[in-house]
């Protein structure tokens, strides 16, 4: 690791929590160059919903490359792109009667967020945006402006304006947040102008695994309709089946105006992002939001394969079964360890909130997990939420073993828990 420490920038982060040199990965496990195996409860920060080196997707890549197919295409018409668009429409949009146009952005999620903000402001002719406390949307300037973490915002090195932050969820210490927003929007002396859009994650992942209530999401959709505000759902981390259905907002029966997808949309960990836009909002001029790598051809190939794999393997049903296991285990084996632990989650994204114990204890627990063959990260305020996010394809055996390692690590930190 001396090479990395000497030559790689200090900005590196995940490697500090997982200080080994990884060399191989398959399914739900990663392997260090020493051969040591680690169960993956991290899934590439949500980019590997279908596991590492999925055989079906890998075969499609090998076939495509072996035929000297187009590898770089900007936004030109290509067969790989056409095949993905048709497949996405047939597998995802048509079954739910969703009418969206697809915009392929630069390959990172934050680039798609930037595009969504630009388009919303262009459509509505307003500069303001409502975002939510605890939200994370990326590290480029526009995305940072709607990200609430003070330390992340400070990294911008300049003011981040035109955003109003609202408490997340149905109530905040007795505050009805929908009524609060209604008051802001209706009061001529609120001091806040009508925004072009509201943007949110239906499950705040980096914010500490906070799951928005269905009623609140429905009320938010109604509020946006009543006040001519666009509703943007950032489904970068919790979309693509993470909560069970393909989109995280399906459980609320709402239709956003703009949906942002990245991370697991390619299915194989390849860079890719896109916007889903209601057709009447697609008022871009040609090239108004572009990028050299807005057409990752290999990602199109694996993204199409991922949709086929999801259908063939009935992945939505698998997520529901594994969700039941995770929920039961956390509530019956982890929660009793300390009366003050809070368990939150949905589908296959869960958090164990140890904020009452502090950041150091949370760090000790996850470090101990790593020493015993489990990779997982921390999230939330002060990084005090232990985040469980394995590939959707993880075996029940490794899912159980990973949960057992967490339980064992709680006992190993030597803290006196409250019962």
UniProtKB/TrEMBL annotation:
**PROSITE patterns from the UniProt entry:** AA_TRANSFER_CLASS_3
Q: Could you say which cofactors this protein requires?
A: pyridoxal 5'-phosphate
- InterPro entries found in the cross-reference section: Aminotrans_3, Aminotrans_3_PPA_site, Dat, Ectoine_EctB, PyrdxlP-dep_Trfase, PyrdxlP-dep_Trfase_major, PyrdxlP-dep_Trfase_small
Q: In which pathway does it act?
A: Amine and polyamine biosynthesis; ectoine biosynthesis; L-ectoine from L-aspartate 4-semialdehyde: step 1/3
Q: Which UniProt keywords apply?
A: Aminotransferase, Pyridoxal phosphate, Transferase
Look up the EC number in the record and give it: 2.6.1.76
Enzyme class, UniProt record, top EC level: transferase
Could you tell me the superkingdom of the organism this chain comes from?
Answer: Bacteria
Task: Provide the family line.
Answer: Belongs to the class-III pyridoxal-phosphate-dependent aminotransferase family.
Q: What is this protein called?
A: Diaminobutyrate--2-oxoglutarate transaminase
Q: What is the originating organism of this protein?
A: Paenibacillus woosongensis
């Amino acid at each position: 690791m001396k090479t990395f420490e000497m030559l790689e920038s200090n900005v590196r982060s995940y490697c500090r929590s997982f200080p080994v040199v990884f060399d191989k990965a398959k399914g739900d496990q990663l392997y260090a160059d020493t051969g040591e195996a680690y169960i993956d409860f991290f899934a590439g920060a949500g980019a590997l919903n279908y596991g590492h080196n999925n055989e079906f997707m890998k075969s499609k890549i090998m076939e495509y490359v072996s035929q000297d197919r187009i590898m770089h295409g900007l936004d030109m018409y290509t067969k790989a792109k056409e095949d993905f668009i048709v497949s996405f429409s047939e597998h995802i949009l048509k079954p739910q009667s969703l009418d969206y146009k697809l915009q392929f952005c630069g390959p990172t999620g934050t680039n798609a967020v930037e595009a969504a903000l630009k388009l919303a402001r262009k459509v509505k002719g307003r500069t303001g945006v409502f975002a939510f406390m605890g939200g994370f949307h990326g590290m480029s300037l526009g995305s940072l402006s709607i990200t609430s973490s003070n330390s992340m915002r400070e990294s911008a090195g300049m003011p981040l304006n035109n955003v109003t932050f609202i408490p997340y969820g149905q109530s905040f210490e007795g505050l009805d947040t929908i009524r609060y927003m209604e008051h802001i929007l209706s009061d001529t002396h609120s001091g806040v102008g009508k925004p072009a859009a509201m943007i949110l994650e239906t499950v705040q992942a980096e914010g500490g695994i906070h799951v928005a209530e269905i009623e609140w999401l429905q009320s938010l959709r109604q509020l946006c309709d009543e006040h001519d505000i666009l509703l943007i759902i950032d489904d970068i981390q919790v979309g693509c089946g993470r909560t069970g259905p393909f989109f995280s907002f399906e459980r609320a029966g709402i239709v956003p105006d703009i949906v942002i997808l990245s991370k697991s949309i390619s299915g194989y960990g390849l860079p890719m992002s896109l916007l889903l836009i209601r057709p009447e909002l697609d008022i871009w001029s040609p090239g108004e939001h572009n990028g050299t790598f807005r057409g990752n051809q290999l990602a199109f190939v694996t993204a199409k394969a991922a949709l086929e794999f999801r259908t063939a393997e009935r992945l939505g049903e698998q997520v529901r079964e594994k969700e039941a296991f995770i929920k039961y285990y956390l509530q019956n084996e982890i929660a009793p360890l300390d009366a003050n632990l809070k368990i939150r989650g949905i589908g296959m994204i869960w958090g164990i909130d140890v904020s009452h114990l502090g950041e150091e204890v949370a760090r000790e627990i996850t470090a101990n997990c790593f020493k015993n063959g489990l990779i997982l990260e921390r999230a939330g305020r002060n990084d005090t939420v232990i985040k469980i996010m394995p590939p959707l394809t993880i075996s029940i055996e490794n899912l159980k073993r990973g949960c057992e390692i967490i339980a064992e690590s709680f006992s190993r930190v030597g803290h006196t828990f409250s019962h």
